[in-house]
Each structure stands twice: as C-alpha cells, then as structure tokens.
Amino acid sequence: MSTFSGIEIVRKSLYANQKAIDITGHNIANANTKGYTRQQVVFESIADNSKTLFAGTSVNNIGRGVEIAQIKQVRYDYYDSMYRKEAGIQNELSAKSSGYIYINSLMRNGRDDSIGNMLTDLFDSMENLASNADNMIIREEVKQNAILFTENMNMTADALIQYKNELNGDIKEIASNINDMAYRLVELNKLIFEFEATGKTANELRDERNLIVDDLSQYMNITVNEKDNGEFQVMTGGYSLVDHYTVQEIEVKNNLPSDVVEGTYNQLYWKNAGSKVILTGGQLKGMLDLRDGSTQENMGIDYVIKQLDNLAGSIVEQFNNINRAGYTLPYSDHLSVNEVDFFDSLSVKATNIRISDALKDDVSNIAASDISLNDNIGLSNNRNLMNYLELRESSSLMYGTVSIGNLEDYIESAFSKITITTGYAQARASSQNEILDYISGQRDSVSGVSITEETINLTAYQKSYEATANLMKVIDEMLDTLMNIV
Amino acid sequence: MRITNGMMARRSMKDIEDAYKKLSNASYSFSTGKKYENAYDDPVSANTLSRLKSDRKDITKYYSNIDNATSAISDMETAVKDINSCMQKIMELFSNANNATLSASAKESLCQEVQQYKEQIITDLNYSSSGIYIFGGFNTRSKPITFNAGGYQYNGTDILSMTNEQNNMALSEKVMVNISKGMSMDIRISALELIGAGEDNMLSNIDAITNVIRAEEFDSVAFTELNTVFDKNYDKILMSITKAGAAANRIDSVKSQLSSRSSTLNDRISDIEDIDTEKAILNYKLAEQAYEATLSASASTIQLSLLDFLR
Fold this sequence. Notes:
Distance between the termini of chain A: 21 Å
Oligomer: heterodimer
Shape of chain A: rod-shaped
Number of strands of chain B: 7
Largest interface: A-B, 56 and 52 residues
Low-confidence stretches of chain B: none
C-alpha cells in the first residue's frame, strides 16, 4: 500500500463528486425540458484487489475510493408502453369528440333555424293554406318556407362535405408527418446504435427518440420493440413502420369512393407491402372514422349526409307524388293542370334539393285541388292539400328500402342520435383524458425532475466534496509532519 | 410516489382549468337561466327536451288552426243568425197574410217587405269575410247565390234544375281544419245546405208564397202546403245555428285541453332546461370561490422549493 494512496482516493472522490454536481446541474437545467428523463449518478467503491506482498502485515485491504459506475436514466418502460397505448385512444376520442361538436354546430341542432324547424314551418304554412287554398299570400308563404328549407339543407350538406374534404386533407398531411417522423427515428437509431457500441448509453438521444415515439403514438396505435442487440422497431397492426435502419413509408392514394358523396378520398397503404394500413387508435383513426363513418355505431359525416339525403329524397318523392296528383290554379295564360312537380324531381340529394321551376315561376303551381279549375269556379278546392296534411301525420313512409316513418320525427331522431353520440364521445374523451393524466403522472413520478430532490443531492455532493477537500488537508499535514521528522 | 415539479405544474394547470371551466359553466347558467349551453352536454335531457318541444310545436300549430276555425265559425254564426231573424220576420208577415180580408195594397206592401227580407237573406248568403265568400264551398272568389230571370243559381248552377249528383258534389266541398291530433272539423257551411235545392229551395219557396198572396184568388190549400215547406226550411236554419254553436263549443273545449297540455309541457320543459336563480347564484359563488382557492393554492405550491429555505 502506497503512502500516497490517500491522495489518489481524494482525487477520485473530488472528480466523482464534481461530476455528480454537474449531473445535478444538468437535471435542474432540464427540469422543464419536454421528454427529458432525469439522470442519476451511480457511485461505486473501488476495491483493492491487489495481492499484498506482505501477507502478514494486513488482513484487510483498504478500498481505493470511489468512481462513477454509470450515469443512468431513470425510466420505466412499462409506463412508456401504457402511455403510448392510452395516448392513441385519447387522441382518437378527442378527435371524434371535437368533430362531433363541430357537426352539431353545423346542424344548428335545437335552434330555431334548424332543418327540423324549417320543415315544420313548411308544413305549418301548408296547414294554413288548407283553409284558404286560393290565398296567394299564404301560397307565397308556403313557397318561401320551401325555399328556406331547401337552402338550409343545401347549406348544411355543403358545410358537411367541406368538413369531410378538410379532414381528407388533414389525413394526407398527418400521413406525411408520420413518414417524416419515421425517417427521424431511423437517423436517431443510427446515432444511438453507433454511440452505444462503445458501451456508453446515449441518454439525450434516447430522450429525443422517446419523444418522437410519444408524438407518433398520438397519431396512430403503435407498439415499440427494442431488441436485445439494440435494434429498434416501431410496429402498427403487424407491419413495421421503422425497423432498425429502414423505414416503410405510408403511401396516400386518392382512390376511396364514398357512397354518399361524389369523388374519391385518400386511403393509406403500406408502400412496400401494398396492403391497406389498418388502424385501431390514434388521431388518424379518429379522423378516418369521422370522415367515412356511415353507420349509427360508427357515426361520421357520411352517416349524417346519408340521413339528410334520405330526408331530401323522401320529401321530394312524397311532395311530388301529391302535387302531381292534384291540379294547379290557373294563372295568366296557364291552365289548371296536373302532373306538376313541387320540388325539382331530379335533385333528390341534400346538396341539391330545390323547388321545381314551375313553383319558382308561380305559386299557383301548388296543386291544392283534386279537379281541374279551368272554369274559374271552386278555386279554394283544398282536397289535394289535405293529402299534404295526411303526409305530415303519416308514420310509415318508406324511401326505397329505407324506413323513414314520419318526416318530422325522422329528422328529429337523426339529430338526437347525433347529439347523443356527441355527448357520449365527449364523456369518453374526458374520462380517457383522466386515464392518460394518471399515466403521465406515474411516468413523471419516475422520470421527472424534482428540484427539491436535486437540491438535496446537490447539498450532499457539495458536503462530500468539501469533506474530501478537508481530507486532502489532513493528508497534507500528515505528510508534512512525516517530512519534518527527517 | 415521487412528486416532481412537472407533475406539480401539470396538476396545478389542470386544477385551474377545471375550476375555470366550472366557473364558465356557472356563469353561463347564471346569465342565461339555462342549465346547459349545448344539447350534447346532457344528451338524455336533450332527447326528452326535443320530444317535449316538438309536442309544444304541435300545440302551437293547432292553436293557430283553432284561431282560424273560431273566426270562420263566428263569421258563419253571425250570418246564419241574421238569416234566422229574417226568416222569423217573413214568418210573421206570412201569418198576417193568411187572412182573406187583406186589401190588395196591404198585400202588395206585405209582399214588398217579404222580398226585402229575402234580399237580405241573399246578402247574408253572399257574406264575405276578408274577401272570401264563406258560403260558397270551394268557390270563395265570387258570390255563391246569383239571380237571373231563370231563377236562382248556386255557383252558376241553376238551383231549381240541379241534379242530385250536382247537389251532392256541391255539398261535399268541405274545408277541413285540424284542430288537434287526428281531429279535424268542417269550418264552412255551403249556401246550398242552408237553402236546399230543387223547387222547395228556400228562396223559390218564399217567392212562391208571395205569389200565392199576391194572387187575386187566395189559394189557401197551396198557401198551407207552401208554408209547411217554409217551416222545414226554417228548421234547417235553426239546425245550422245549433251546429255552429256546437262547433264553437267543441273548439272551446279542445282549446282548453290544448292550453292545459301546453302549460304542463312548458312546466316540464322549464324543469329540464331552466335553473333556479337562487341555485344559479349559489353555484356561481361556489365556482368563483373554488377558482380563487385553486389559484391561490397553485400560486404558493409552484413557487416554493427547498432552495427558498437553504442559506
């Protein structure tokens, strides 16, 4: 054992503690850095494993001080995978929830100018007309209400389709975002893999990679797999988006037809495999569902437009059937005739429903009478109008194979389905938010920086540094004394 | 569990957000008197509400129909009652005429008077309310009863020579109004129904009686016969008055039913969507306090650390 071994211990201790203070400083400096994982200094005592030459002088070897074994990231993978799973679900739900809220505001549900109320107004004015069938003012009112109703339908359907197109654009944008992220992950994979081949851990680079994976998990459901040999994979539905150094891009093809709207929409494919990307979570899934959902369970814009189309088609069919059966009022050089349309019979969609040219031309074309009125007698014949009122009460209407029931109830119930779905989606999104919050909290609890804790560590390292420095003084004095003897 | 600064900051942020959101909701309720801003905030109530509101809309619709019916029926009643009093007058005059001692000039002036009442009846039958002839069936734009040398016409068809088919056709021109769900009512009577068709029609009958009175030879047999017809015609008028009265009663009763249903509906709607002012104020105050408390708690927790106490 060397006389100067004490000085070596002091050197090592000073070095280790100074390094620990630096790490503490690094932690404090990054307390608010997004994605930062706190780092912990792991001290290790150095044992004296030398075989002593003088076996008899000492039984126990004295250790040789301290060294830093590792600067490790405090991170728990389980929370990461939990977080990514729940973040996917949360983003899907919140995308849907905010989408539904927007759809609700487009429908102006429950407000005076909602489609349902406009239809009621139209029937109300019909009812009025029934007791004064040749009153031109009331006829004009019926016409205006019909125009308001059709324009309202057109506007709402147009706004829905515009929203559908916006979502379509966003989906493409997100897909290209995901591809960018995949390439960034591959770059990081290279850096990390090469750096860690030296035996060190690439803490900051890993933080960066984790952050990107977290972001990715908000867009789509992913699973992450780091192999024992350090190769890093990101998988979705059985396909790998990132596999160590390679990326499989998501390709956007504009080839998905919609059964309610003209035109094609973006669809996602795996570029190499050629198969469709199948998602079970994430914002992208939420947006796709919102854009294409056409059933009550999976409600999306297509469903809402389909409801409006059914209503529009049914109304055009029913109104025209009634109007064609009746006779119009004679006006200027027009005779009282039957077979006149109320709505334009070729425009049976919510986007294009409109009153017929005949009705636009003159309100006399509302066929109120059941017989021809050419002798100018019996102009207030309202027998055909009574069919409109019967239509209003009818509760067993069919449109093709779709059961409509009652027209006013149909639109009312379609709207209340949307309301209920919105409320449900909102509730689910907010409870999922709680779950995600809890997991973030857990993750933060393990990996986050606590200033208080760092302060305590700092004080401990500082005291340790001071004490070591004092030790140097003691050794110095000891050696001084030894020298003076000579 | 370690508590880190990040957790603390996020927790505080979330608490403040929650409290602020509650404050915003409370403030909405407080200032509008409504429980929820959007239907989807409470889908179950929203559903009930939309059903109740559509019921209420129905009632409003029936209300306006009833108003139409009421004014139509009261117009009709006024005119028919006037016809009734004319008929009474004519009846009195006829009973005076059943007297062989009357001088020719007295007879003539009596007949003149009868004719005047008859003219009055025709005016009543051609009564128009805001431009609509109410006794004309589907013909509301021209006078239903006209007179020319050939006799009386109803909507241009000669009454004397009217076929049964024509008569039934004219009588079937009814203007129906829905006054409640599944309940409609006829708000017009046609002049034809009041005066009858064929040679026994009221107007021709009156003319026939005056002719008998005017005749130099008083034909008492014909006079009695014609008077029997007159009585029958008079009964028709009385019947119409009764009918109009009954219709008015029916409307009143339906209206009072509707109004009680509407007030029940309004109560239920208000129960669901409105909030008590006291409760709203209390909620607002509570939310305000909670918000302040959260702010002040957050302010102190996120500021302090051990560093503040180390020298």
